[in-house]
Design goal:
The structure is a homodimer of 348-residue chains.
Chain A: H1 15-32, H2 52-65, E1 79-83, H3 96-108, H4 121-125, H5 129-147, H6 153-166, E2 168-169, E3 174-175, H7 182-193, E4 197-205, H8 206-217, E5 224-227, E6 229-236, E7 239-248, H9 257-265, E8 271-274, H10 280-286, E9 294-299, H11 320-328, E10 331-334, H12 335-338
Parallel strand pairs in A: 1-4, 1-8, 4-5, 8-9, 9-10
Antiparallel strand pairs in A: 2-3, 6-7
């Protein structure tokens, strides 16, 4: 049994793989020696600058893991929820699910001439991001519904996996799987190293987000909450399949999020990480219980290395939630002040 | 680190507690020494007689856990799904959720005089089980909706927990929490000891079944699939709460079950355990993939120690699924032949 899984010395290790590996190794160590937290020590947080934000994170974890302390939380109840777009990965020019949907629409457009004059397809074909943002999650799910229905869940997975292997964020000049923020990958590892289970919450297609979450953050499929599409069960000679239907249950956005969280896990999270007004209720839910908790908002202030936006943004508007953060004592992570690096280094 | 967690020598140990304990201890052992399976050995299955049924179960587990073997399945994909009523616990005179709903209706009847002439309340007040069975899961969820709405999820949990502490199955003369079948508790421990995650699937109220599954089988809340009630999120001065609404999404019954399973876990189970026609599609789904799998049906043949019923039963009818079992190669566990004990011994 390894005594010191530690953190690789070089900060440019491929995180998507390493975090997945850590997830496999860490539970064994922390179940048999709860409290021993080499890989879960604050030294994991290299890309976070010292200061009130990092201190608040480290103190929170210390409080809930100190056995016998007033704020101790047993491992099964150490649940953290993360929004995707803008929190764990960039949402500009658009989030990863919308990028997938746009490519699907483009690939299938020749077979659907009517799309040229019908929303949200017209805006999708024109890559009119402002118009798409205005149509919200319903618009992007409509694109997914039109381009990914009538196929089995296995066929859909294959389609998403192939796409993720190649798809690139052109503005950031890197593959989507290389886009997750380094400080947030470190935070996931730090929390998991301290017995937390980390969930991804998105308004996007549940099946898509599960594959993304596995590749990008090493999350299990049952650690993802999203909008499930309805399905039809079919028994065939060769076996049985689930066929995707072009209808979604919206469980991941705004005021229905707390209910979606309860439905998926049956427990109230004690830590929530968001970046936009659509994360407001998730933060209110996680920080509305009686025990020790933390709410944190990523504030996109880094126009040099990423993007700078808040109260007037088309995607990821942060306005009400920023005011609520100040009133509610949530931590605000300023990307310029609190992070010394945004991304992993990649070979272009 | 204990080398031999083993099985308590005395078979009358309180299973509800011990299985929960095993769940905590076993993962640590099996993650660090996968393949070493003292507590997961077939010796766990004391209440199962030797014969083709037990052999089929043990061989299946051996096949999927033999590293390098043609049927090896990694631990993360070792998923077993269990129906509740009739499979893990008796469903006569009625399942545990309906028993709860009946008591709630009785307790609140004085405030609702109109219930005396309105279905399904009239049948509930008259304890007319045949009429209630005919109204199916919708009837029983209607009783839960009428008696458990407008309260917070925390208040509901409290109500269920108090009820479970005292409620008794009069026909079996024991508390409901003492009703789970001993051989099935052993099977849960055997599977978990071999790296499986065991899920409960029910058409009943998700929140109710989660509390039941924790008490009865040591399952985590996210290992339960059921019918979630819709909820309203409220922010109060004292914190935030989820209020139960009198509407349910039916995700746990019949043909929608496979979709409900996918929605909850995002993986196809490789083992399914049922006892009635309502479990048919769950069995078809779990046994309809390409790898090694097992489907098993509990056949209620033991009228002396439990109840005897199948093709014409009002609750838990087993007709189509019994025919499908023979055609599909599913294992049929005959309660008289395959089990040497049905229940744990309890102080009355």
């Amino acid at each position: 049994m390894p005594q010191q899984p530690g953190h690789p010395a070089h900060p440019d290790w491929p995180h998507a793989i390493s975090v997945g590996l850590l997830r496999l190794i860490l539970p064994a160590i922390f179940v048999v020696a709860d409290g021993y937290a080499a890989a879960g020590s604050a030294d994991t947080l290299h890309a976070w600058n010292g200061g009130p934000t990092k201190t608040a994170l480290v103190q929170f974890v210390k409080d809930v893991t100190t056995e016998g302390g007033p704020d101790y939380v047993p491992p099964a109840e150490r649940i953290a929820v993360f929004s995707n777009d803008g929190t764990l990965a960039p949402e500009l020019p658009c989030g990863v699910q919308l990028a997938f949907a746009l490519d699907r629409v483009k690939a299938l457009a020749a077979k659907h001439p009517q799309w040229r004059s019908k929303e949200p397809f017209r805006s999708a074909l024109a890559r009119n991001m402002k118009a798409l943002a205005a149509q919200g999650v319903r618009g992007s799910l409509q694109l997914v519904a039109a381009t990914c229905s009538g196929m089995s869940t296995d066929e859909f997975s294959e389609t998403v996996r192939s796409w993720l292997e190649k798809a690139r964020n052109a503005r950031l000049n890197r593959r989507y799987t290389q886009c997750p923020y380094l400080p947030m990958q470190e935070l996931l590892a730090f929390l998991r190293g301290n017995g937390f289970t980390c969930y991804l919450i998105s308004s996007g297609d549940l099946a898509f987000m599960r594959i993304w979450a596995e590749k990008a953050y090493g999350m299990d499929p049952d650690q993802v909450i999203g909008s499930p599409c309805r399905m039809k069960f079919q028994v065939r000679k060769s076996g049985s399949v689930l066929i995707r239907l072009p209808e979604f249950d919206l469980l991941g956005e705004g005021a229905v999020r707390p209910g979606g969280i309860d439905r998926a896990m049956g427990r109230r999270p004690i830590a929530a990480f968001g970046s936009a007004d659509s994360d407001l209720e998730m933060l209110q839910y996680a920080t509305g219980g009686s025990g020790r908790h933390i709410g944190l908002i990523i504030h996109h202030t880094n126009g040099g290395n990423e993007f700078a936006y808040d109260r007037k943004a088309a995607f990821g508007r942060l306005d009400k939630a920023l005011d609520a953060a100040k009133k509610s004592g949530w931590v605000i992570a300023d990307m310029t002040k609190d992070w010394n690096r945004v991304f992993t280094k990649v070979e272009k």
